[in-house]
Protein 1
Amino acid sequence: MYDIGKMFDLGGKVAVVTGGGDGIGRASCEILASAGASVVVSDLSPDKAKVVADSIAAAGGKSAAVGCNVLEDADLEHMIDFAASTFGTVNILVNNAGMGGGGRENPFKIDRAYVERIYAMNVFAPWQLCKLAAPHMQSSGYGSIINITSMSSVNNDPDMAIYGSSKAALNHLASN
């Protein structure tokens, strides 16, 4: 028999979650904390991140909030440094922050700036965070990177081509 509690015991591990202020990100933070991880809740809105971190702390978990615009390299570096200085390392990275989709990407009505922003958010920021977190994971002897993608990464829809292709790119990054 498997001890489910032991299988999901993340005591002593440190998780960083982007876009942790609501939705999938918030749920990820709460699940990781309930499994014993210390969680760095990051969000574009520092106020949203603080609400989630405070909720985790009120439930007996360990958490800290940090504002982070994943489109800014300095913010990414600060977030990883904050996690390491607050909790000692980074073991788990959840690349959840993302944008685009919603069936509003008519290929004849979007411009290059839109495409670049979607790829910056959904591909380049997670890639940069993996590079920043990996040394901490290697030195601690434990690492897990979770990239939140989308069914749009495998389903074709011309009104979600940019979003879907960016999430497909993230899928491929995760497989290497």
Protein 2
Amino acid sequence: MRQQVAAANWKMNLTITQAEELLNNLLQQSKQLSDHQKVVFAVPFPYLALAQSKVNSHPNYFVAAQNCSEKKSGAYTGETSVEMIHSLGVEYVVLGHSERREYFSESNALLAQKVDMALSYGLTPIFCCGEPLNIREAGTQNSFVEKQLKESLFHLSAEQLAKIVIAYEPIWAIGTGKTATADQAQEMHQHLRAVLAAQYGKETAGIVPILYGGSVKGSNAKEIFSKPDVDGGLVGGASLVAADFTQIIDALK
């Protein structure tokens, strides 16, 4: 079975005290995960070392940075390099989140550079893609998201692509309370896997986990995750509540 992933995106939330309390609560409630199941905490940069120290003794629990620089090092005040992230033992990095694309004008070309940098240090990119409401209403979401994949990932070899986690996030369903139906999520995930298969073959496409991200809650996770091409979720608000995120972890196939 493909990897099934419950990824928590804390965004810019919590104090250090609150972060430690949340991690403690989640890890105390943590269940024994199967080999194909993973939990990833994408925490703010100041909390990476804390989170990494907490998950070290918990098999299949990992930490992610929420972003990285496309530059290796140098005079880039305020930026964080992949080398720095790697030096903490962190194994994942979230790239291309819709908020980075919208608020910080991150392009597909820039994200291709970040993907390359992450892979060069052995980090697993959680690569985000997804369409805004006007694209969904126009019915052009498939081609819109396909373009994101092609321009940021299709320079990779099949071996490199197999190391990527993709997160599909319909932007119109992030923080709005709206959620794509389980069938809508499956439809897009199936399309994305077909796009990968056309470029890399069915075997490689069948390896890549595709997560759903868009108002995933404990109450809807099981239905969404049950779909054959949905391999877990990238979770925002619900990941800040221990009971809710535990329920989402329990919903993994």
